[in-house]
Design goal:
about 0% strand; about 280 residues; mainly alpha; Serine Threonine Protein Phosphatase 5, Tetratricopeptide repeat
Length: about 280
């Protein structure tokens, strides 16, 4: 390549990068009208971030008339230019349907989530796993779901580690489940830590079920009599599968019942289980 051409290209890149810096400074100062104009120039120069930020401003009426169709086209352009967040945004629109006036299309959602995930955006990897698990041919896409959650976890999305561990636990692959719960726990996901302990106890209860039979009978009687601590420990047994068939729903219901009787610890546990989807 001609040396002069290389120099010109480098200078152009520097100028365009300066546009984004200027726009970001204006945006951070909430000088939205001025920022819009600079982001437009950046987008016209095919800078993906400029298109993404401009789309965001049109979507959220930041000193500009809301225009969903324009926002969608700009997100799409940012994606085509390589912006992972732009691809994620388009994927989310097709996934849910109705966002930015876009009709639901799960195959397109898959395409855009995958593009975003491959570009390193961890939330896209997680959403892709969720798409495979719940809505896009779950019975056929189990392996894809597994890979997507692994990608999410490895890129730093803790919920990906958690969902993957829960997936292995349901398959009775405790070795793999413990591994992924531990990864989440090591990254300070307290819920993963709790579940890791639960899993060790669950394994023990399968080896020596007689150890927990008397506990189950005692806590059941105490809970029936209105003893909130008895209810708390009974719920914990159902949560871990300790001496009883594991049932997160049953555990949640007992925690909620105990919470309604005034036990704060049960309220916290019940809320965490509800937030985890149980």
């Amino acid at each position: 390549m001609n040396r002069m051409l290389i120099v010109v290209m480098l200078l152009a890149t520097s100028v365009f990068s300066g546009l984004l810096e200027d726009a970001d400074k204006l945006y951070s100062k909430k000088s939205f009208k001025e920022a819009i104009e600079v982001y437009k120039k950046a987008c016209d120069a095919n800078l993906s971030k400029g298109c993404y930020r401009l789309a965001f401003m049109y979507e959220n009426k930041q000193k500009v008339k809301q225009d969903m169709e324009k926002a969608f086209k700009l997100y799409e352009k940012s994606c085509q230019l390589g912006d992972a967040k732009g691809c994620y945004k388009i994927g989310a629109c097709y996934d849910v349907g109705g966002i930015l006036k876009v009709k639901q299309d799960l195959k397109k959602a898959e395409t855009y989530y995958k593009k975003s995930c491959d570009a390193g955006f961890r939330l896209a990897c997680y959403n892709l796993g969720s798409l495979y698990q719940y809505t896009l041919n779950p019975e056929k896409n189990e392996k894809k779901m597994e890979k997507s959650y692994k990608d999410a976890c490895e890129k730093g999305a803790l919920l990906g580690c958690y969902k993957l561990a829960h997936y292995y636990e349901e398959k009775d692959d405790f070795k793999s489940a413990k591994n992924w719960f531990k990864i989440g726990c090591d990254r300070e996901d307290t819920q993963a830590c709790f579940r890791l302990v639960d899993l060790y106890i669950k394994e023990l209860s399968r080896i020596k079920p007689e150890m927990f039979k008397k506990e189950l009978e005692s806590y059941t009687k105490r809970c029936d009599a209105g003893d909130t601590m008895g209810c708390y420990k009974l719920a914990a047994m159902y949560s871990t599968g300790r001496g009883v068939k594991q049932s997160y729903k049953k555990a949640k219901d007992i925690f909620v019942e105990s919470c309604n009787m005034g036990d704060n610890a049960s309220c916290i546990e019940g809320l965490m289980m509800i937030q985890s989807g149980f």
